[in-house]
Design a protein that fits this description.
The chain has 489 residues and is of the alpha+beta class. It folds into two domains: 279 residues, Beta-lactamase; 94 residues. It is built from 18 helices and 16 strands. The radius of gyration is 24 Å and the shape is globular.
């Protein structure tokens, strides 16, 4: 799968997912499950099945654990177009939950003396630099893990090429040479996949093996995660879910050829795939600080770097509070997949939800299930009707431009008609306004959702295609109106 297809806004794009949920709104499900000692499995299963149906996701897998005991683990729906049912062994792309794996390996390497968390990155990766070398030389490993490096969300969601001499995470690092830091290292939080692309390269350098092998040896094998891999499954026998992207509200399966050529540049930002059994086992191991993967010296694992009020970022986990208890979670958002892993360490609670559908109006199925499992305020699984209306209303822009373009074309083809001065002025203004509008949309689209247009198409094909069509039609209309002005009517 290409690097573009692994970037995630999530929150996964990271903050992209969070922003979308805020924009789409919060909604209520009918059932709220008591998170105390009495966990009604049947009632919860019924509620989850209804949420799954309401959201319209092709497939989903859910696991709920308390103090290491599995209360519920089940697959729902289909894994792909062949109709195979989702099971607890079906592997889903987990997107940015991968970052928690990366952060954990960094803590392992720190305990082994291979690095110090406060080391400048250039001490171990001397080839790393940004446009301001003096500033990027001050970026530490801790800054990268906690998203305080000064690299932007957009920087992390570009797939810049650097020529054939480099590949994988090394290529992603080399592509940062021309970027500008938005803030002084260590001062400001901004979620960026670039941080974890750099960390995955650091792992390869210090561990002297590919990132995939490092994760397998350090996490997958110690925990017995046999249905987990980075990008490419070890065996064709592994059951792998197909991702579905929403096109104007309808889920469409990604074609196999779209994933034919894996690109390793962003594997540290979102490359892990795992089954619900494996992911639940992993998150529980992190929560319980299982010595098989969590070193005793990993003091910063749950140390929060505050961002806003109780909200912050620890080592690979977003943090918040539920009552008096700290909550650690991370979502994953890749083209065709939306996932969420949540743990409340003090209460021994773990919930993992994996789905194979994503899009601008994919709703909030993972969070709805999580809230039901933990007894929190309910959240509606399906996207609100307003979100669906908004998506379809986006079609009106290119349609309106097409009508004006048709009228302009007819006038150009017809006999010249004298143009009054004030009409000429209006047309000149229209030309300038259309060009300014296209430029504003071109810049604003990328800035608003933190992705380039190629990345936007991978995540939101309907919105991106509509936006590009509108820009192209606007430029054609500007050219037509300019021709009328030059011709004089």
């Amino acid at each position: 799968m290409s690097a573009v297809r692994w970037l995630g806004f999530m929150r996964n794009i990271g903050m992209i997912g969070v922003l979308l949920f805020v924009l789409l709104g919060q909604h209520v499900v009918a059932v709220q499950q008591d998170a105390g000692d009495d966990f009604d499995v049947a009632a919860f299963d019924t509620a989850v099945a209804r949420m799954h149906e309401d959201a319209g996701a092709p497939g989903m897998a859910v696991a709920v654990l308390r103090n290491g005991q599995t209360l519920h683990a089940k697959g729902y729906g289909i894994a792909g177009p062949n109709g195979q049912p989702v099971t607890t062994q079906t592997a889903f792309q987990t997107g940015s939950i991968t970052k928690s794996f990366v952060a954990l390996v960094i803590l392992q390497m720190a305990s082994e003396g291979k690095l110090d968390l406060d080391d400048p990155v250039v001490r171990h990766v001397p080839t790393f630099r940004t446009a301001s070398k003096s500033r990027s030389d001050r970026i530490t490993i801790d800054h990268l893990v906690t998203h305080h490096s000064g690299l932007t969300t957009l920087d992390g969601n570009r797939a810049n090429g650097v020529g054939p001499s480099l590949s994988g995470p090394a290529a992603a690092v080399a592509a940062l040479a021309g970027v500008q830091l938005f803030a002084e290292p260590g001062t400001t939080f901004q979620y960026s996949n670039a941080n974890y692309a750099l960390l995955s390269h650091l792992i390869e350098v210090l561990d002297d093996r590919p990132f995939e092998q490092a994760l397998k040896a350090r996490i997958f094998e110690p925990l017995g995660m046999t249905n987990s891999f980075v990008q490419v499954p070890a065996s064709d026998a592994t059951a792998v879910a197909t991702g579905y992207r929403l096109w104007f509200g309808a889920p469409r399966a990604r074609q196999p050829e779209q994933d034919a050529k894996p690109d390793r540049r962003m594997i540290g930002a979102g490359g892990v795939s795992a089954s619900i059994e494996d992911m639940a086992r992993y998150v529980e191991a992190v929560r319980a600080r299982d010595p098989r993967i969590v070193p005793v010296e990993a003091d910063r694992l749950f140390v929060i770097t505050p961002v806003y009020e109780q909200w912050g970022y620890a080592y690979g986990w977003f943090t918040n509070t539920a009552g008096d208890e700290l909550v650690f979670e991370h979502s994953g958002f890749t083209p065709g997949f939306y996932t969420l892993a949540t743990m409340v360490p003090a209460k021994g609670q773990v919930v993992v939800v994996l789905t194979n559908m994503s899009g601008l109006a994919h709703g909030d199925l993972p969070r709805a299930v999580t809230h039901a499992a933990l007894g929190w305020d309910p959240v509606r699984a399906a996207a609100p009707i307003g979100a669906r209306i908004a998506i379809w209303s986006a079609v009106t822009a290119p349609l309106g431009l097409l009508i004006f373009l048709y009228k302009t074309g007819r006038r150009l083809l017809n006999r010249r008609q004298p143009m009054r001065p004030w009409v000429r002025g209006l047309n000149v203004g229209a030309v300038l306004g259309l060009i300014a509008g296209v430029y504003g949309v071109f810049i604003g689209f990328q800035t608003m959702i933190g992705v380039s247009f190629p990345t936007g198409y991978a995540f939101y094909p309907d919105l991106t295609a509509t936006t590009v069509a509108a820009m192209a039609l606007a430029l054609l209309l500007a050219a037509g109106r300019l021709a009328l002005v030059i011709r004089g009517g």
